[in-house]
Amino acid sequence: MAKNVKQQFGHKNPIFVHEERTLIAAVDRADESSSNSQTIGRNGEVALLDLLNRYLPHTMAVRRGHFVAPNGDLSPETDLMLLDTRYPLIAHNDDGSVLAMLHSVVAAIEVKRTLNKSEIQKILHNSSITTSLQSGAFGAAMEWGIVLQKAFAYRASIKTCTIQKHFFAERESDPSRTHLSVLRILPSDFPDPERTYGAHLWLEDHNAPSHVTTVSPLSDFYYNLVQDAYYTMGARAYDMDDVAENMNQYMNWGTHPNALSEDEG
Questions:
Q1: What are phi and psi of 86, to 5 degrees?
Q2: Exposed e or buried b for every residue in 29-57, given b needs 16+ CB within 10 A?
Q3: Is residue 120 within 8 Å of residue 201, measured between CB atoms?
Q4: Structural domain for 85, as ranges
Q5: What CATH number is associated with residue 50?
Q6: What does the pLDDT profile of the chain (265 residues) look like in tens digits?
Q7: For 74, which DSSP code?
Q8: Measured distance between the N- and C-terminal CA atoms of the chain, rounded to whole angstroms
């Protein structure tokens, strides 16, 4: 009989168990070898970027950098962007970072090595900026079709109840669209001390605080990201003509005008 590798509810995903270990080891190695927080943070982003790009379908790709709105407004540096690969990049820099058209951005992903109050506040602040920038392209009221907002933390340095307190603190005045995934919560929060756990936090229907612990946080994060990405791209329903038309909102063509003056001729 063939081996069954389908993940069972309540059990670890056997394939992503190894990927989790590799990710955590990469960040721990960077942590031990450098005191530079930017280097450690960048290694956390690159490790996740490499993993996602190995698994993602060819219709999507993950890049670091910025996106630009059709009106020319530039986003803050985004840790990772999930892009619709049908769109060309505006720029690709030597360090691997890119400049992308907002219409090509399916998801913006914040990556945190350690999750604490300060990092949660940064996640929520950047979420507000992304929501504001994208409203001109997709409309703020859309349920699907807008840029997905995800946050990924390798480890929590505070208890899960404290994470919830800070993550949901502004939900009434400024509800966040971010879905937060934590690869490892504190061992003191493990429901079963014989197993390791992660967690997911989000606002259900943008108003109901929701939280689950999970034995397969990485596979949950990956499959949720891809499924939501397909729903988002499906809601946008861009065909190739739409992609070409969207591009006109970003490109100022440099072709010499046809009507030349005598001096120019």
A1: -70, -20
A2: ebbeeeeeeeebbbbbbbbbbebbeeebe
A3: no
A4: 14-247
A5: 3.40.50
A6: 566 767 777 778 889 999 999 999 988 888 777 666 665 567 689 999 999 999 999 999 999 999 999 989 999 999 999 999 999 999 999 988 999 999 999 999 999 999 999 999 999 999 999 988 888 788 655 678 999 999 999 999 999 999 999 999 988 888 888 999 999 999 999 999 989 999 999 998 878 999 999 999 999 999 999 999 999 999 999 999 999 999 999 987 777 766 655 555 4
A7: B
A8: 78
Counting every residue, how long is the chain? 265
Residue 77 is assigned to a structural domain of this protein: yes
Q: Which residue bears the tokens 């956390």?
A: 44
Q: The pTM is what?
A: 0.89
Does 254 reside within a domain?
no
Specify whether the CB–CB gap between 78 and 43 falls below 8 A. no
d(Cα 9, Cα 260) in Å, to the nearest integer? 69
Local structure of 193: helix, strand or coil: coil
Say if 66 falls within a structural domain: yes
Q: Is residue 6 part of a domain?
A: no
Structural domains counted in the chain: 1
